[in-house]
């Protein structure tokens, strides 16, 4: 009898957490896959089974190819530019200078604020007539007249995408920089001392010591960024609503727009997105070497 | 190659130790290089704050000057901050406080025992549990929104309760992870000593371990609260049928975007109210968040 109580004890302590994750995080995946195989009316009423029809409809969606292409560009550009800029920022904020702690703290603003607020600030600052960014670009002579096509950045899909990527990079920089700063702290001074005795130059030390030792931090920060940027919804939604048409949509906003009338097809799109997320999670588990961490 | 370049200070500094930083400069002469670096770093730091300054400036702009092409208005007004409450914004604030507060309470009640037990005991299924936590940390509502929407519409719960549960579920992993690390770093001997002095196991946990893990608990608390407060896509989906003055803040602010015009004055007054407190709160836990997000894989 005692033995049984003992073996149930973990359930008392850990059970509620497992239950919460199960109901809120895991079960929706099951519901999602199930919904993708059903014919669902726009009001949510299930008309009947659909087999693979939602997937074939999605596959034949004329906008799909463009949306997928944009999603790939969106993730690759945002994540790689973020990483490059963060490497520089981390190096700078790792140096000693007066009030460093205060300066570092200022970097967190875009991390702490809701991403939708930051996106709305940029939407306003890009207003063709009175936006602060346009006023500055006008003063610099880059924008010649307010209210023209040239100043209407968000009305032109190509430029809209560029500015949305800038916002996505801006909000990704703080976490990435902090992760790399954490990584820099793990490199002992002695390593540099030894290299300096050997007469190594600054750039040489960065390439042969800093970057290799920063590898774990870079890998973890990159996988986390890939997942965040891939799932990013508020930036595109608040700045262009994914339009005109689907011309500034990624798979996430495309799914959201589909969901308003074609729930089954949106579920199919979601299943595809989720499959990609699983792949990224597997990479994440590998790079965090979770088994060692759990030890 | 001055020694300045390799200066290392422990990255995770408890706030209480901050004053030691103030004494540090006396040990170092202000070199030309330090000067250039500081100017560059300050400029970047200010650059990160500029968009939020624009948010405050626009909120304080008289409505008539919204069409003026100047960076700073000629007059200032607090009108947006008073009239916004006539649009039902007070209800939105309460709704977000309830959702974020409720989610935070659930996360703490559920994650403290789970993190404590998995830090102290090797039980069957322990690695499986930690794997589940770590893997689901990477799951985000956006990728499974249709599933969440259909599951919770079947549950038929009030939207507020659904949003509390969803936010609690998706932020649980961070909390379990950061608390697990804190509990593991507190020697079990401390609890045992207290138990010899007559405390029960739970008494020892409450009197010895929890106070020592306080920084971790505060980090988990603030992080969860902010994440739920800022959440947008699930709020937008699950509060769809709610009266507009009972929708969460992010949805309410999104509602100032009309089909033909945008009420920028109220939008940014709301954004200021929603954003400035969380930036200040986040500054409290700033140094401790990375280890929770990266599962301690970067020390």
Silhouette of chain B = globular
The H-and-E topology of chain A, N to C, reads as HEEHHHHHHHHHHHHH
Indicate the proportion of strand residues of chain A.
Answer: under 5%
Give the end-to-end Cα distance of chain B, rounded to a whole number of Å.
27 Å
Derived from helix and strand composition plus strand pairing, the structural class of chain B reads mainly alpha
Which fold name fills CATH's third level, the topology of the largest domain in chain A?
A: MetI-like fold
What's the pLDDT, averaged over the residues of chain B? 86
- Architecture per CATH nomenclature, i.e. the level-2 architecture of the largest domain in chain A: Orthogonal Bundle
- Enumerate the spans of chain B where pLDDT stays under 50 for 5 or more consecutive residues: 1-26
CATH class of the largest domain in chain B: Mainly Alpha
Coarse shape of chain A: globular
How far is the first residue's CA from the last residue's CA of chain A? 31 Å
Query: Largest inter-chain interface?
Result: A-B, 118 and 115 residues
Give the amount of beta strand of chain B, in percent: under 5%
Structure description:
The complex is a heterodimer of chains A (295) and B (299). Chain A is mainly α and 295 residues long. Chain A has two domains: 32-61 and 260-290, no CATH class; 73-250, MetI-like (MetI-like fold), CATH 1.10.3720. Chain A contains 14 helices and two strands. In chain A, strands 1-2 form a two-stranded antiparallel sheet. In chain A, helix 1 packs across helix 13, helix 2 crosses helix 13 and helix 3 runs parallel beside helix 8 (157-185). In chain A, 46% of the residues are buried. Chain B is built from 14 helices and no strands. In chain B, 66% of the residues lie in helices and 0% in strands. The chains are: A mainly alpha (295), B mainly alpha (299). Chains A and B meet through helix 1, helix 3, helix 4, helix 5 and helix 6 of A and helix 2, helix 4, helix 5, helix 6 and helix 7 of B.
